[in-house]
Design goal:
This protein is of the alpha/beta class and 282 residues long. Helix content is 39%, strand content 20%. The protein has eleven helices and nine strands. The protein has helices spanning 7-14, 33-46, 66-71, 76-85, 96-99, 117-121, 125-140, 152-164, 194-199, 202-215, 220-232, and strands at 2-4, 22-27, 51-56, 90-92, 144-148, 170-174, 237-246, 260-268, 271-279. It has a six-stranded parallel beta sheet with strand order 1-4-3-2-5-6, sandwiched between helices. α2 (33-46) links the parallel β2 (22-27) and β3 (51-56). Bound molecules: adenosine monophosphate. Adenosine monophosphate is lined by residues 27-28, 34-35, 38, 147-148, 150-151, 174, 176-177, 184-187.
């Protein structure tokens, strides 16, 4: 496995790998089993002939909260071990000043899917995501890229970006990886207090209850109110949003025969956790 810290090193390392399938997995580091699953999926997609590139870059441009950026966990040595053990060929690990010019002045804003859910409460977040992913796509020029459905809205927005900008890269969505207790794995989980860490699996449990209620025909508003009430009964927990939307448009569910998405963002103390579940009436 090779590690590139600059764009020049990256170009040189990727040159001999071009012409075959190349699968990119962008991450912000502090890698856990969820990331490892994406990396292994990328390895499988690339096959023996192709290559896997992982980026480990804590992108300051997508943070709307300076405290969140400052306290985001960093485990670079461990991340390299994870990448190596998952069969990654090249890791791109730039610093912000390698990635961005000080006087950069181009922004990239998705204007429909970004207005709801996390986009509504994290101004500028998805513009930062689109910018960095677009730059990574241009630098790596992969044939494919893998993103997790844990960040469901991010995946939907990136699919839109690829479609609307004619980016010749195939995106793959990976299922959410959870701990044994059902909590979706997240780099931010290590920041939870012990009490909130033991209470946090309630997110998944409430989504499963909601899924059954949806199949039974309960209304979107009743389902969302139930999830909010369950989570906010935990001391120190406050829901940012609980919303049931169309899984593709991310706006209001209109047709009962379309796939729906129940998405939650909740503050457990000062740690914001997200999770979601796809719902169908069938
Ligand atoms: P991050 O480092 O949080 O930006 O995540 C990098 C990629 O890993 C994104 O595509 C995430 O959606 C994905 N990811 C993070 N956690 C999980 C998880 N628990 N299950 C599946 N994918 C995940």
């Amino acid at each position: 496995m090779q590690i590139a810290h600059t764009k020049e090193e990256l170009r040189a390392m990727l040159a001999p790998l071009r012409g075959k399938r190349m699968v990119l997995v962008p991450t912000m580091g502090a890698l856990h089993e969820g990331h490892a699953t994406l990396l292994r999926q990328a390895r499988e997609l690339a096959g023996a002939e192709g290559s896997v590139v992982a980026s480990v870059f804590l992108n300051p441009v997508q943070f709307d909260n300076a405290g969140d950026l400052a306290t985001y966990p960093k485990t670079p040595e461990q991340d390299m071990e994870t990448c190596a053990s998952c069969g990654v060929d090249v890791v791109f690990m730039p610093t912000p000043d390698v990635m961005y010019m000080a006087d950069r002045s181009i922004t990239l804003e998705e204007t429909h899917l970004s207005t709801v859910l996390c986009g509504a409460s994290r101004p500028g977040h998805f513009a930062g995501v689109c910018l960095v992913v677009n730059k990574l796509f241009n630098l790596v020029q992969p044939t494919d890229a893998v993103f997790g459905k844990k960040d469901y809205q991010q995946l939907a927005i990136l699919r839109r970006m690829v479609r609307d900008l004619d980016i010749p890269i195939t995106l793959h969505g990976a299922e959410i990886v959870r701990g044994e207790d059902g909590l979706a794995l997240s780099s931010r989980n290590v920041r939870l207090t012990p009490e909130h860490r033991s209470a946090a699996p309630a997110i998944r449990a409430s989504l499963l209850t909601a899924s059954a209620a949806y199949r039974a025909g309960d209304s979107a508003s009743a389902i969302c109110a139930q999830v909010r009430c369950t989570l906010e009964s935990i001391p120190g927990v406050h829901c940012d949003y609980v919303e049931l939307v169309d899984a593709e448009t991310l706006h209001e569910v209109a047709e009962p025969d379309r796939l729906a998405l129940l998405a939650v963002a909740a503050w457990f103390g000062d740690v914001r956790l997200i999770d979601n579940i796809e719902l169908s009436r069938a």
